[in-house]
UniProtKB/TrEMBL annotation, chain A:
Alphabetized InterPro entries for the sequence: NADHpl_OxRdtase_5_subgr, ND/Mrp_TM, NU5C-like, Proton_antipo_N
Parts of the chain that traverse the membrane: 6-22, 29-49, 83-104, 116-133, 139-158, 254-274, 286-307, 314-336, 342-363, 384-403, 423-446, 466-488, 508-528, 606-625
Organism annotation: Colwellia hornerae
Entry keyword set: Membrane, Transmembrane, Transmembrane helix
Protein name as annotated: NADH-quinone oxidoreductase subunit L
Domain annotation NADH:quinone oxidoreductase/Mrp antiporter transmembrane: ranges: 133-415
């Protein structure tokens, strides 16, 4: 069996062993198994990526078996590795390995430790299948698998009602996107008679009927197919309008959040669009929608992040906003920049989440920013690591986030499917990013200590070198990850010759983009003064209605509850007895009435019979006469 | 001959189980459950041998027996097999073993009579799948109905009598329509060729005028649509499922519903291709309504078994949608869905029975947090719920995907509506799984016993095998179907 085919096998074997033996495995065996399998997978993908650059055709494939065939089109269980999927497997297994390592220590005391690690392994398996699939059906398998694993992990502490609801919400909301994607697959198959990704990208360019339309350009099959695929991407990547599950997904243990936000799950949508670039390029309208979706999401999520009290929720909204940048890049046709940002974001978001996790654990599961403060002195190492993560998030020059975000912003102005207005969106988003990052840092690490003095920092975390080790590696990756330039441009198709780039970039663009984060920091330094000054009067979360509105995710939850969930539940409750059944049972009731009437008439009284006899005779005579 | 032996062997061993139950032979106390398990195992081996050793090519119907039965009406005793019926018969045998295993401890009263009824139902179902004389088909159709009614009425839950009567009346009234259509067909055959004939292959040769064909098709269609069941004639199913004992539910969902789908393919589509193609828009609309309505109703239920029953209606909608799409891909999807639903719904009903034995309730509000005390049960519950909502990698996904891809070529708008069923199924499966296994642990329940693990894991393994390697089913091109 080839190395590529064995890649998802390591975590899968670990999953199977862990789930079969469960609690009978002690902590050491379970963590060696799960983390070891991830290490093997990470080494394996490093080797494969290295091999790929030597390989002449720069594609490695592995065919396992034929899954089924749709008509004459085969759907195979086979893997396809090119530069794009190589970047993805490196991120998934590399960052995934570090998160596993962290989780093994973080979750040590949980009574269901081995089940937790099993789910984490399965999550990685699903994600690997997703990024390696050579056809859309296999990709859909990974896609749904990721959904299921996120459901299991978000609801891992299943005894609390909130976690259960959050898990359900995540699953159902993403399932709505998945269904759109499934319909997209049906449409693609109908018009192109194939579900193989490489073939579709080829055929989309050459099949005239796919892009042509009888009515107008907005109604071609390519348009609808791309739109439906976008529906799937929006669900998994938590973009508007299906973004509501992501903040609630914070109910899961912190390593899960890191895994969902950095290595797996939310990057799937970005990957899907990048992977299907052949289809998206055929419809500039949809590319434009993708860019706008990304732009609007990054702004709304940034606003929401400004108003959060919970350290993990700030990070959740920041993920949403950063994915918005990636979508913006994809929509603008800057595929490489989008994937590059995906990679750097995975590094620093994993770092941020895991560091936040240590902070939360050190404060005995305190997540409220208004009950932290002054942690710089108590946890200097964590504070430094967190600062590094935030610097990347803000995109300070020199960090990895800077390179990737600048690449995105630079491509926007002159892109035929984006343009200056979206460039301004991105700049505004960068400003918001730096403001909410500063607010986060000031509230958590500076200012007065706002938690009880008696609450000591847990000791076993302090001593764990492995935990710190994972964080240091991530910090190094976050700083220097930007130096690894990945060139994927040969991989992606470019625009049709019909569309020409707009005017050249004005010279001041670059300067504005670099200065913006600093402007944000400067602004926060003064605006959030009370958060960072010692001895300030007690802080409380703002109750301003606008802030509360932003804190609750700009009302999307309420909107969906009123217009979708409540009507559905109402109709379901109303019709619990089944209308069709009631109608049919009415027939039974009607027959029952007649039975009662007729049986009542058979009462054995002679006078009844005589009367009935007489009346019938009269009736008969009348009928005869008439 | 062999096939006859297998069908009647089931009936005879049923009788044997009835009479020999609790008798002592050679110092061993005979038990009906052991006898019937043995009989089913032996007979299923016989059947497999029969198929594997046969030189015949099962692409077309292969005749196994044909002897005159009622000469005055030219009625024959005729049995035949093709790939479709072989697939369904293997499913039937597999679920027969499951049915006996789930009744192992549940049935404590009148065990002999119970196993007689169970085996008689299986004999009837087997007969339905291989009869090619329509009178014989109708005979078997009734044979499977009566013992099933008895199973619900005698060993069912609190409202068993009502449910049994409802089941009986629905099926009986609709099969009367089929009987009329059968007789009319025989009469038409007499008009065209001079002889009465109830033989299926003879009927295929008939050239029926479209307006007549439309009515005759409807007669068959209604009978099978009730059995399938399709909205609006589905309402016997939730009651029957809820009230039946576990094995009854497994039997109903697993194979009895499939006789409806089998009939639609074998008789409605094949005998009246033109008429059913004209009727397709209506049938497909009914199918889509079933899919969405079933999913929505399933969400509203508090009763574990009732929820699964409504989900069956939703799943069988996919089968009907696929059958009436007149597309080879969709047909393959229909067949995979039939088998997959047979396994997954059987699994969920078996699980319902397992839980009922522990908490003596089917009400979801009485459950919750079972994962704490019964993690193995939880794991299986999750897997079966995942099968129900069509997780790729399990058999149901392949069936639904092929059905929808195929149907999309013909009815794109309808398929978009049907795809809403995918969301609906996720919602009810989540409600089912989370209300049972997650949340605050309300009771401590015993984890699965060895017998129950055998039941669950055999079902799960077959779901996974069919999900990852559906070519076991699909390598038969079912070419004869088109």
């Amino acid at each position: 069996m080839s190395l590529l085919a064995s890649l998802p096998l390591y975590p899968l074997i670990s999953f199977l062993v862990l789930i079969t033996f469960g609690k009978r495995l002690n902590w050491a065996i379970a963590s060696w198994l799960s983390v070891g399998s991830m290490a093997a997978a990470a080494l394996c993908s490093l080797f494969l990526a290295n091999q790929l650059s030597l390989h002449e055709s720069s594609v490695i494939t592995a065919h396992l078996w034929q899954w089924f065939s749709i008509g004459s089109a085969e759907v195979n269980i086979s893997f396809y590795l090119d530069a794009l999927s190589a970047v993805m497997i490196l991120v998934v297994t590399g960052v995934g390995f570090l998160i596993h390592l962290f989780a093994a220590i973080y979750m040590k005391d949980d009574e269901n430790f081995s089940r937790f690690m099993a789910y984490m392994n399965l999550f990685i398996v699903a994600m690997l299948v997703l990024v390696l699939a050579d056809n859309l059906v296999l990709l859909y398998l990974g896609w749904e698998g990721v959904g299921l694993c996120s459901f299991l992990l978000i609801g891992f502490w299943y005894q609390e009602r909130n976690n259960v609801l959050a898990a359900r919400k995540a699953f159902i909301v993403t399932r709505i996107g998945d269904t759109a994607m499934a319909v997209g697959l049906f449409l693609l198959f109908k018009s192109l008679a194939s579900l193989n990704i490489a073939e579709i990208n080829q055929l989309a360019q050459t099949t005239a009927s796919f892009t042509a339309s009888s009515i107008n350009a907005k109604n071609s099959e390519a348009y609808w197919a791309a739109l439906l695929l976008l529906g799937g991407a929006v669900g998994k990547s938590a973009q508007l309008p299906l973004q509501t599950w992501l903040p609630d997904a914070m109910a899961g243990p912190t390593p899960v959040s890191a895994l969902i936000h950095a290595a797996t799950m939310v990057t799937a949508g970005v990957y899907l669009i990048a992977r299907m670039n052949g289809v998206f390029l055929m419809t500039p309208e949809v590319m434009n929608y993708v860019a706008w979706l990304g732009g609007i999401t990054l702004l709304t999520a940034g606003l929401a992040a400004l108003a959060q009290n919970d350290i993990k929720r700030v990070l959740a909204y920041s993920t949403m906003s950063q994915i918005g940048y990636m979508m913006l890049a994809l929509g603008a046709g800057a595929w490489s920049a989008g994937v590059f940002h995906l990679m750097t974001h995975a590094f620093f978001k994993a770092l941020l989440f895991l560091t936040a996790g240590t902070v939360i654990l050190a404060l005995h599961h305190q997540q409220d920013l208004y009950k932290m403060g002054g942690l710089l002195k108590k946890l200097p190492v964590e504070a430094t690591l967190f600062l590094i993560g935030l610097a990347c998030l803000i995109a300070l020059p020199g960090t990895s986030g800077f390179f990737s975000k600048e690449a995105i912003i630079a491509s926007l102005w002159s892109s035929p499917t984006a343009g200056p207005s979206l460039w301004w969106c991105a700049i505004l988003g960068a400003l918001l990013t730096s403001i909410y990052s500063c607010r986060l840092f000031f509230l958590a690490f500076l200012g007065k200590q706002r938690f009880p003095k008696t609450r000591v920092i847990s000791e076993h975390l302090e001593t764990s070198k492995l935990l710190r080790g994972a964080l240091f590696v991530l910090a190094l990756l976050s700083i220097f990850g930007g130096l690894v330039t990945i060139d994927l441009s040969s991989l992606f198709l470019t625009y049709q010759p019909g569309i020409i780039n707009r005017s050249n970039n004005p010279s001041w663009l670059h300067l504005v983009a670099i200065v913006t984060p600093f402007a944000g920091i400067l602004f926060s330094w003064f605006y959030y003064k009370r958060y960072r000054i010692l001895g300030y009067k007690p802080l409380r979360a703002s109750q301003n209605p606008w802030v509360v509105f932003c804190r609750h995710g700009l009302g999307f939850d309420t909107l969906y509850a009123t217009f979708l969930i409540k009507p559905y539940c109402f109709i379901a409750k109303l019709n619990r007895k089944d209308l069709f059944d009631q109608t049919l049972m009415l027939l039974a009731w009607y027959i029952g009435i007649w039975r009662d009437i007729l049986s009542a008439s058979q009462n054995g009284h002679l006078r009844w019979f005589a009367a009935a006899f007489g009346l019938s005779m009269v009736g008969l005579i009348f009928m005869v006469i008439l | 001959m062999m096939l006859t032996l297998i069908v009647f062997g089931l009936l005879l061993s049923g009788c044997l189980a009835w009479f020999a139950d609790n008798k002592v032979l050679l110092g061993i106390k005979l038990q009906a459950k052991w006898l019937s398990l043995l009989a089913v195992l032996v007979l299923s081996c016989c059947f497999l041998l029969l198929v594997y050793c046969s030189e015949k090519n099962f692409q077309q119907l292969q005749l196994f027996a044909r002897v005159p039965w009622i000469r005055s009406f030219n009625i024959d005793y005729a049995l035949a097999l093709d790939q479709l019926s072989i697939t369904l018969i293997i499913l039937t045998f597999f679920l027969a073993v499951i049915c006996i295993l789930v009744s192992w401890q549940e049935i404590q009263k009148k065990t002999g009579f119970y196993y007689f009824n169970l085996l008689a139902t299986f004999a009837g179902i087997l007969g339905v799948f291989c009869a090619v004389d329509m009178f014989l088909f109708f005979f078997f159709w009734e044979v499977m109905l009566l013992p099933m009614t008895a199973i619900i009425a005698v060993w069912g839950h609190e409202k068993r009598y009502f449910a049994a009567v409802k089941f009986f009346i629905f099926t009986q009234v609709s099969s009367l329509l089929m009987l009329v259509a059968i007789i009319a067909m025989a009469y038409i055959h007499q008009q065209q060729t001079g002889d009465l004939s109830f033989y299926y292959q003879d009927w295929l040769m008939l050239d029926i005028k479209l307006d007549v064909a439309q009515y005759l098709m409807l007669g068959f269609f209604i009978a099978f649509a009730v059995k399938l069941p399709s909205v609006p004639v589905h309402s016997w199913l939730p009651d029957a499922h809820t009230q039946a004992p576990t094995a009854g539910s497994v039997l109903l969902a697993g194979v009895l519903l499939k006789t409806g789908a089998y009939g639609l393919i074998r008789f409605v589509i094949f005998l009246f291709p033109q008429a059913s193609e004209n009727f397709a828009p209506i049938a497909v609309t009914l199918a889509v309504i079933s899919i969405i309505y079933g999913a929505k109703m399933a969400f509203a239920q508090n009763d574990f078994k009732r929820l699964v029953a409504y989900s069956s209606i939703s799943h069988m909608g996919f089968v009907m949608l696929a059958i009436f799409s007149f597309n080879e891909i969709a047909y393959q999807g229909a067949i995979v869905t039939m088998v997959a639903h047979g396994l997954s719904s059987a699994a969920l009903f078996a699980l319902a029975g397992i839980i009922y034995q522990r908490v003596h309730s089917r009400n979801l509000t009485d459950m919750g947090g079972f994962w704490q005390s019964a993690p193995r049960m939880g794991g299986f519950g999750l897997a079966f719920a995942a099968a129900a909502f069509g997780l790729p990698g399990l058999a149901n996904f392949v069936g639904e995907f092929l059905s929808l891809v195929g149907a999309f070529q013909v009815f794109p708008i309808m398929v978009i509506f049907a795809a809403l069923g995918l969301i609906g199924s996720a919602i009810y499966a989540m409600v089912l799984f989370q209300n049972t296994f997650q949340g605050v642990p309300s009771k401590l329940v015993e984890d699965l016993s060895l017998r129950e693990i055998c039941i669950c894991s055999s079902l799960l393994v077959s779901l996974i095998i069919l999900g990852l390697y559906p070519n076991i089913l699909l390598r038969y091109s079912f070419g004869a179907l088109l």
